[in-house]
Specification:
The chain has helices spanning 10-28, 50-61, 67-81, 88-104, 107-132, 138-218, 222-250, 268-277, 294-314, 352-363; strands spanning 281-287, 319-327, 330-338, 367-375, 378-388. The protein is an alpha+beta fold. The protein has 2 domains: 10-173, no CATH class; 267-396, Heat Shock Protein 90 (2-Layer Sandwich). It has a 5-stranded mixed sheet. Strand 4 and strand 5 form a beta hairpin. Helix 1 runs antiparallel to helix 4 and helix 4 packs across helix 5. The protein is rod-shaped.
C-alpha cells in the first residue's frame, strides 16, 4: 500500500527555499561557524556543510505538514552540522523547525518537547562545567537553550495563546447560538400566547354571531330575528372590546392605547351571562376563595370561556355545568355539557381551542383532559383541568 506524503504548506515552501538560498550565499562567500582547523571539525572543507543545510531546508518544507518527522530529521542534520565547519543558516532553520514542532505538533509533543529541551539545557550547563571546571563550559548550556529550549518554549506560549483564543471564539459562537435559540423560543412562545389570546377572545363571540345569524336567516319570525340581532350586536360589541384589548397588549405602553387588564375569575358572572344570552343553560358552582395567582385566574377564565364556546357549537340540549374547586394547593376546573350527536357543529371550528386549553394548563405545570364520558344523566362531554396555585407560579 502506497504511503501518501503530506502536502506541504505554500508558505513553508517559501521558508525552506529562502533558507537554502541564504545558506548557499554564506557558503559561497566562505562564511562558516567554525574554522576548518578546529578540533571538533571532523569533516573539513566547504562541501560537507551543504548536506545538513539541504536536509534542514527540506525539514522546513515539512515543518507544518509533518512536524515530528521534520524535527527528528533536522536534529540528525544539526548533529551532523556540528562535525563540519557549520552554517549559521542551518542553526537558524533548526530553531524554526523546533518552534513549529511545538506549535503545529500533537498536544503530547507540545508538552514533551519543552520539557526535554529544558532538561538538555540544564544538563548541557551542569555536566560540562562539572567535567572541565572552566566558565567557558557554561556556553554549551547557553547554546543549547538558545537553539532548542527557547524556540520550544516560544512555540508552547504561542500555542497556548492560540488555543485560548480558539476556546474564547468557540464560547462566543456558542453564546451567540444559545442567544439565537432563546430568541427563537421566545418568539415562538409569544406567537403561541398571542394565538391563544386571539382565539379565546374572538372565537366565542364569532361563534355566537354565526349561530344567531343562521337562526335569523332561516326562521321567518320577526321576534326571533329581533332577538338574534340583539345577541349579534352584543357579541359584536364585546368582540370589538376584546380586540381592542388585544391591540392594547401589542402596543407600546407609551402609545395612545395601553393594554387593558387581563380578565379574572371575577368576570365569570358576566361570562356566564353572555353564554346564557347566547342560548346556553349554564349553572355555576364556584368555591375557590381569594388570593389566586393572576396567571392561574387568567388560565381558568380562558378554559371556562373556551369550554362554553365549544358547548355552544357542539353540545346537545340540556344544562352546561361549570365547577371550580380549590383543594390541595390546586384549582380544579370541570365543565360538562350534554354530548352532541349532530353531524356537524352549529358553527365551524378548527380544534385550536382544545390545543390552547391544553397549552395553558401545561404552562402552569397543571393537567388537562377533555372527552366524552358516561354519567347518570347520559353521555356528556367533560373538560377537566387542574392548575397549581402555588405563589411561585410563573406567568404563562
Amino acid at each position: 500500500m502506497a504511503v501518501r506524503l503530506p502536502r506541504p504548506h505554500r508558505f513553508d515552501l517559501y521558508v525552506g527555499l529562502a533558507g537554502l538560498l541564504g545558506g548557499l550565499l554564506l557558503w559561497g562567500i566562505g562564511l562558516g561557524l567554525r574554522p576548518a582547523d578546529e578540533a571538533m571539525v571532523l569533516l573539513p572543507g566547504a562541501w560537507p556543510l551543504l548536506v545538513p543545510l539541504v536536509v534542514t531546508a527540506g525539514c522546513e518544507v515539512l515543518r507544518r505538514a509533518a512536524p515530528r518527522t521534520a524535527l527528528l530529521t533536522a536534529t540528525a542534520a544539526l548533529i551532523m552540522d556540528t562535525v563540519t565547519q557549520g552554517s549559521l543558516v542551518t542553526v537558524l532553520m533548526y530553531t524554526d523547525v523546533m518552534y513549529a514542532a511545538v506549535l503545529y505538533g500533537t498536544p503530547a509533543s507540545a508538552r514533551r518537547i519543552p520539557r526535554i529541551t529544558g532538561l538538555l539545557t540544564v544538563a548541557g550547563t551542569i555536566v560540562p562545567f562539572a567535567m572541565w571546571r572552566v566558565p567557558e563550559a557554561l556556553l554549551i548550556g547557553v547554546a543549547t537553550g538558545i537553539v532548542a529550549f527557547a524556540p520550544a518554549s516560544t512555540g508552547l506560549i504561542v500555542r497556548n495563546h492560540r488555543e485560548a483564543a480558539d476556546a474564547a471564539r468557540l464560547r462566543a459562537e456558542q453564546t451567540a447560538l444559545l442567544a439565537e435559540m432563546d430568541r427563537t423560543q421566545a418568539v415562538t412562545a409569544e406567537r403561541a400566547r398571542m394565538a391563544r389570546e386571539l382565539h379565546d377572545m374572538v372565537a366565542n363571540h364569532l361563534s355566537a354571531i354565526a349561530i344567531h345569524s343562521t337562526a335569523a336567516l332561516s326562521l321567518d319570525d320577526p321576534d326571533t330575528t329581533t332577538t338574534a340581532l340583539g345577541v349579534i350586536r352584543e357579541n359584536s360589541v364585546e368582540g370589538l372590546a376584546e380586540m381592542r384589548r388585544l391591540i392594547g397588549i401589542l402596543r407600546d405602553d407609551s402609545g395612545d392605547t395601553g393594554p387593558a387588564a387581563a380578565p379574572t375569575l371575577d368576570g365569570l358572572g358576566a361570562l356566564l351571562g353572555t353564554a346564557q344570552a347566547n342560548g346556553l343553560d349554564v349553572a355555576l358552582d364556584a368555591a375557590y376563595g381569594e388570593g389566586l395567582p393572576a396567571p392561574v385566574e387568567l388560565a381558568a377564565y380562558r378554559i371556562v370561556q373556551e369550554s362554553l364556546t365549544n358547548a355552544l357549537k357542539h353540545a346537545g340540549p340540556g344544562r352546561v355545568s361549570v365547577a371550580l374547586r380549590r383543594r390541595d394547593g390546586s384549582l380544579d376546573i370541570t365543565v360538562t355539557s350534554p354530548y352532541g350527536d349532530r353531524d356537524r357543529p352549529r358553527a365551524p371550528g378548527s380544534g385550536a381551542g382544545l390545543v390552547g386549553m391544553r397549552e395553558r394548563a401545561a404552562l402552569l405545570h397543571g393537567t388537562f383532559q377533555a372527552g366524552p364520558e358516561d354519567s347518570p344523566e347520559g353521555k356528556i362531554w367533560a373538560v377537566r383541568a387542574t392548575l397549581p396555585v402555588g405563589e411561585d407560579e410563573e406567568a404563562a
